[in-house]
Amino acid sequence: MPDSPAARSEKGAVSVLFMILLPVLLLAGGLAIDVTALNAERRYVQAQADLAALAAARHLTGAAESRQAARQTVAGNRVFVASPLADSDIVFGVLSGADFIPTADQSSTQGADAVRVVVEAPAQMYLLDLFFPLEDRVVRREAVAAIERPRVSFSLGNCLAELSLLGTLLRPYLGVQTDVLCSGRGVDTQVSLPGVLEASAALLTPSGEPFTYGDVLDADLSAGALLSTITGLPQQLGLGPSVQLGQALQLPDSVRRLHVGAPIGAASIQQADLVFAIAELMAERVASVDVGLHLGEQQVGAVVRVGDSRQMVINVIPGSPEARASTAQIRVDLNTIRLLGLLDLNISLRVASAEAVLTDQGDACATDPLAVVADFQPIDARLVDIDLSMRLTGLVGALVPLELSTDGMRDVTRTGFGFTRARYETEPRVTFSPSEGVVANLLSVLNSLTLGVYGHNLPRLPLGGSLLGQQTSLLEAGEEVLLDLLGLDLARAELELLDLSCPSPNPWLVR
Q1: What is this structure's pTM?
Q2: How far is Cα 365 from Cα 373, in angstroms, rounded to an integer?
Q3: Of 383, 494, 377, whose CA–CA distance to 435 is shortest?
């Protein structure tokens, strides 16, 4: 039976509708295919970036090696061919919490513990490429991988010298405990650095807030409360001046950004180092500190001034810019010393000024007893920096007192030192002291000064054996003073390797 006109009209309408919708359906199908392919390519390129970042992080021993590892990884994946990686696509940096911070020098991996890799590939599309220019059809993915680099803590100081010069500042707070601060340098004289920082955070107001380590280091804290926290002794005197621990404790930025309580690697530090660092900071707040020193046959007053406190380096990556420690800048001006009632001797000295730089040439994870775990190059130590002046007084015939001086008797040492694993485990410190030749030269200068004073005055002075005898006695008295002064160990610097942290060498993805 033939179709009715109405039925034929309905079929025609469906055919027209199908013809109208067919392009839309084809476009939708093509779009679905493109979106599916694009998502697959994005996942694949992200996997390429992840693998390249992990490979680069595993080879962070050098910039060229790290970049080559990333490029080889990307080149080995050929399903979606990526663009060649430029140097700017492989960026070295440090990880601070979850933040990636590029290092300033991208030609080196020194100080870097993370790497960011950016991978680009042309998007493979079948329909949308008709509507987008080639430069816009790019899949771009990045990944950041990091490693836990070995970290080292070390310090430079002179415990005995600081006890002689700054003990008067500490005794009101620590009492007799002050005199035994330098009696040992073992495990029993160490304190937990994270514990000290956590206890210091509790001193801040309001207590209980989520402070970072940087907040604690930069805060003005009571010296008396800090000394009580470090030593465990009850607070014997008032709060004392405010000090900032960050002026003496140098932690890398990646650690400073962590909240108090987060692990920071270094577990312990010498109690005496922290105590004397606080004493130096206290001394910076006052014009001078008056002390008494026993030199020769007399008690000599002295004025101590502290310029900059020491820098103890905690938990740094070897070779990084922060891996640098220094001693305090201390000047000691002795009161005039009268020798045998005839000669006034004035002495001014700068206590051993030293700086040590930790390189990346050591292997903190090495277990061989002879392997170098921490290499310091260079160690600059100005061990003797003394000014002497003399004034002749009290002799008959010395009509006009004459003053002669010598400026800058110095012993500057520039050397290096590597701690082996065995040395670190048995005696993790090395001392730099003035050489015997420099001490002899200092005594020779004293001799020349004494003879110079006498030589200028011989025409006015009575000659005879008694005068020569007086010269000898004066020289002996002056030498005794200088030797006693050097015997206080003021002119020496002690480099101590405090802690080594050796984490797993396997890299991990940050994002």
Answers
A1: 0.72
A2: 7
A3: 383
Three-point CA angle 404, 406, 411, nearest 5°: 165
Please identify which residue in the block is written with the tokens 């020496």.
Answer: 492
Ramachandran class of 487: left when φ > 0, alpha when ψ lies in -120 to 50, beta otherwise: alpha
Residue in 307, 246, 248 with CA at minimum distance from that of residue 276: 248
pLDDT of residue 13: 61
Same domain? 432 vs 502? yes
Residue found by looking up tokens 């890398």 in the block: 252
Same domain, 476 and 461: yes
Q: What angle do CA 461, 467, 470 make, to 5 degrees?
A: 125
Which of residues 125, 146, 167 is at a domain's end?
Answer: 146
> Helix 271-284 and helix 223-231: axis angle, to 10°?
170
Q: How far is CA 180 from CA 6, 159, 195, in A?
A: 114, 11, 22
| DSSP 8-state secondary structure symbol assigned to residue 212 | B
Mean pLDDT in consecutive groups of 10 residues from the start of the chain, 511 residues:
56 66 69 73 88 91 91 84 88 83 87 90 69 68 89 85 85 82 70 87 74 90 88 74 88 83 75 89 82 81 83 86 83 83 77 83 91 88 72 51 44 78 91 67 68 54 51 74 73 84 84 79
Whether residues 482 and 337 fall in one domain: yes
Q: Where are the beta strands (DSSP E) in 274-394?
A: 289-295, 298-306, 312-316, 324-326, 330-334, 337-339, 343-350, 353-358, 372-392
Cα–Cα separations (whole angstroms), residue 138 to 43, 57, 109, 124:
14, 26, 30, 9
Among residues 189, 201, 323, the alpha carbon closest in space to that of 262 is found at 201
**Is residue 130 domain-shared with residue 162, that is, in the same domain?**
no
DSSP 253-297: HHHHTSBTTS--S--EEEHHHHHHHHHHHHHHTSS-EEEEEEETT
The reply to whether 470 falls in a domain is yes
What is the rounded CA–CA span in Å between residue 494 and residue 409?
21
- Domain span at residue 474 reads 151-509
Q: How many domains does one find in the chain?
A: 2
Please count the CA atoms within 13 angstroms of the CA of 6 that sit on its side-chain side. Answer: 0
**Is the residue at 379 inside a domain?**
yes
